[in-house]
Amino acid sequence: MWNQVRKLQKNRTVKYGIPMLLLVVGGSFGLREFTQIRYDAQKMKKKLDPALEARVNTKKQSAILQDEYEKLKDLDLDGWKNIRGPRPWEDSKEYQEEQRAPLNKGT
């Protein structure tokens, strides 16, 4: 019997494989628990009264949309010209001034 135990102690599968397998399987269970704790904590932070949350979101969104509509209403969205950006080897300020010069003369 002791002879079999010594053979098992010298066996590489028993010596290295089983601890590695236990580490991988045990680690996956441990990580699952830790990630669950993380998501539970996030849920607790985000918790709001549903009635209050509905009121806050709708008022906030409608006000933001109205403001953006007022900003865009007076803009001329059809009168634009596409200006190519500079290439890496071109001087950016000089090239942009060159591109904008004909536009400024026209207005």
Automatic annotation (TrEMBL):
Chain intervals for the UniProt region annotation (Disordered): 80-107
Transmembrane in keyword set: yes
Record GO cellular component, one term: mitochondrial inner membrane
Membrane-crossing segments per the record: 16-35
Subcellular location: Mitochondrion inner membrane
Residue stretches of biased makeup (Basic and acidic residues): 80-100
Keywords associated with the record: Membrane, Mitochondrion, Mitochondrion inner membrane, Transmembrane, Transmembrane helix
Pfam families: COX16 (PF14138)
UniProt-listed GO biological process terms: mitochondrial respiratory chain complex IV assembly
Membrane topology reported for the UniProt record: Single-pass membrane protein
Similarity comment: Belongs to the COX16 family.
Name the UniProt record assigns to this protein: Cytochrome c oxidase assembly protein COX16 homolog, mitochondrial
